[in-house]
Amino acid sequence: MAGAGHTGGTGAPSAPMAPEELTARLEAIGAPAYVVDPQGCIIAVNSRAQALLALPAEDLVRHDAHDLLHRDLHGQPLTRTQCTMRQAFLAGRPAQADRDYFLRGDGVLLPISWLLAPYDLGGEPGTLVLFHAAGRTEESGPPARRAATGQLSELARLALLAETTTQLTSTLDVEEALHHLVHLVAPRLADWVVIDLITERDEVWRNTVVHVDGDTLTHVEELQGPMPPIPEESPMPLSRALRGVASTVAEPQTYDREPDSGIAVEQRRLFEVTGMRSAAIAPIRSTREVLGALTIGRDGTRPPFTTEDLPLLEDIARRAGLALDNARLYQRQRKVAETMQNHLLPQMPRVPNLQMTVRYLPAPHASQVGGDWYDAFPLADGATALAIGDVVGHDLEAAAGMAQVRNMLRAYAWSLQEPPSGVVGRLDEAIQHITEVTMATLLFARLERVEDGRWELTWTNAGHPPPLLLSRDGLAEYLTGGHGLLLGTGAAAPRSDGSVFLPPGTTLVMYTDGLVEERGHVLDEGLERLRRHAAALAHRPLDSFIDELLSRVRPSENDDDVALLALRTPLS
Question: Which of 436, 429, 384 shows the shortest CA–CA distance to 410?
């Protein structure tokens, strides 16, 4: 539950990137850089750019970059129609210039080279500008030599590293990060990409062997899969990389000698099958351990790799290692959280002649347990109690509070011979004094079979979304009776009950707000979406009904947990 109650949220579907996060990314680039918004105003700048421009961030941010910085050869302001940088910016395409001029804060006219490219600001377009003082890239070699060896220019190298940082930090999914990595280096640097990963059991798995030809990406699955163990002393390139020793260039002749390990045999086979004529291999490291190795290969149509290519590959592999480590830690934490959540949620009781099923889905982007829960249990008089609730928060405190509320509800419901409103009223009084729960919603009901064979549902609602009732013919209505304040407000308002008889074949759906709430939309839209799809699925078997309902109704931008309990009365 994102907050108190369950009203719909507001805001854009994708939150813009925070300025501090954007600035941190620029700092990692290693070159003077700034980002402008769609209007051309600077929204973030790194320390290297501030030093080169002799201007602090406060004199750069929120100013129009063209008006503030760009000048002609004589130091005069450029008209906007003369500015090639602005033309590319407005067209939303990459561009670069080897010679241009910026005016520094101290009045000095600074010759520069620049490169710009579109940059995703988290839902809205922006533009990244990389620049440096012209004439300071001798270490990269003259253009003719770079072209002959297939090396990138300094600006292109910095742009690639900036893009690598952005792409690899945009996901916490391992496979998605590897997919980004492949597209970052091929075909820009290589025709082949091979990624070997070390598993948590210290086994090597050849995760990726991909050939890229233009826009066509081909996986060579026969070369993917388990690999032999890492040899402790082998001097061969991949073995050294997997031990984190060094980066190396290799060629088919490297593996012509008698193989010293199973990995060397697999590398010989790799060169034979792919036809690679040259390869560069670098360790993929995190700050704690070696995670694997990145191999990029070239066919005979490009110049072979040299040791001068290794620093760039190492920079890319280093960024990949940090991204993969973060993704693995996140997935490990998420798995622990899901396991803990599943142990906290109860098994459903078997009620004769009644179908009942439940589902719990964690928030798509959360790695912690949450406060959504459901429960069903027998009462002392033979009726069945049904509950679904939501404690504020997505952390261990929320999960602990959820467990407290659930257990206290069970105790009160068993011991008190009162209707649901009385049980929830006593619960509300207690949680304010003996728990740390600040606020929660709860729908609590009792279901019993009456003398004529029908089922009677009585419920009270403490600030929770209303349950949905479906007839076997697809008629759908929300049960809005018995509604009262959510738990934890401290108000002593009396609570009421609602009651309804359930005809044969009736389906009852109880759910938490993550199923119907969506940022930028009012709650009524989500409730109507749930009602419409539930009515269309009313004829499905209960398990199929609930799975398809979750698939259709849960918002794609959902950032909350979902708990759902559904039951169906017999046809006769």
Answer: 384
Reported confidence tier of residue 435, pLDDT bands at 50, 70, 90: confident
pTM of the model: 0.51
pLDDT in tens, 457-478: 999 999 999 999 999 889 999 9
Please tell me the distance from the alpha carbon of residue 40 to that of residue 48, in angstroms, as a whole number: 20
173 or 368, greater pLDDT: 173
- 58: tokens are 């406060």
Task: Report the range of poorest mean pLDDT among 1-10, 28-37, 178-187, 387-396.
Answer: 1-10
Q: Which of 338-342, 366-370, 381-385, 490-494 has the lowest mean pLDDT?
A: 366-370
What are the distances in angstroms from CA 243 to CA 280, 282, 336? Answer: 16, 10, 29
Interatomic CA distance for residues 513 and 371, integer angstroms: 12
* β-pair type (455-462, 483-484): parallel
Rg (C-alpha) for the chain, rounded Å, is: 31
Helices in 491-572 by DSSP H: which ranges?
523-536, 542-553
Taking the C-alpha atoms of residue 425 and residue 76, their distance in angstroms, rounded to an integer, is 75
Q: Residue for token digits 């999960």?
A: 399
Partners of 51 in beta bridges = none
Return the C-alpha torsion angle 567, 458, 421, 493, nearest 10.
100
Query: Which of 532, 470, 467, 476 is CA-nearest to residue 499?
Result: 467
Q: Would you place residue 364 in the very low, low, confident or very high pLDDT band (cuts 50, 70, 90)? A: low
Residue found by looking up tokens 């049904």 in the block: 386
Q: How many CB atoms lie within 10 A of CB 531?
A: 18
Contacts of residue 466, defined as CB under 8 A and 6 or more positions apart, other chains included, come to 478, 479, 480, 483, 527
- The rounded distance, in Å, linking the Cα atoms of 172 and 364 is 11
Q: In this structure, what token pair is assigned to residue 521?
A: 């939309």
pLDDT digits (tens, 9 = 90+) for 126-160: 899 999 887 543 334 444 444 444 566 676 777 78
- The per-residue DSSP string of 321-381 comes to HHHHHHHHHHHHHHHHHHHHHHHHSPPPPP-TT-EEEEEEE--TT--S--SEEEEEEE-TT
| Secondary structure of 406-428 in HEC code, one letter for each residue | HHHHHHHHHHCCCCHHHHHHHHH
Dist. CA 565–CA 550, nearest whole Å: 11
> What residues contact residue 263 under an 8 Å CB cut-off, 6+ apart?
204, 227, 228, 229, 230, 231, 234, 236, 238, 239, 242
Q: How far apart are CA 567 and CA 521, in angstroms?
A: 29
pLDDT for the residue numbered 147? 45
| 140 φ/ψ angles, rounded to the nearest 5 degrees | -85, -10
Q: Which two tokens stand for residue 104?
A: 């520094």
Can you say how many angstroms the Cα of residue 41 is from the centroid of all Cα atoms in its chain? Answer: 29
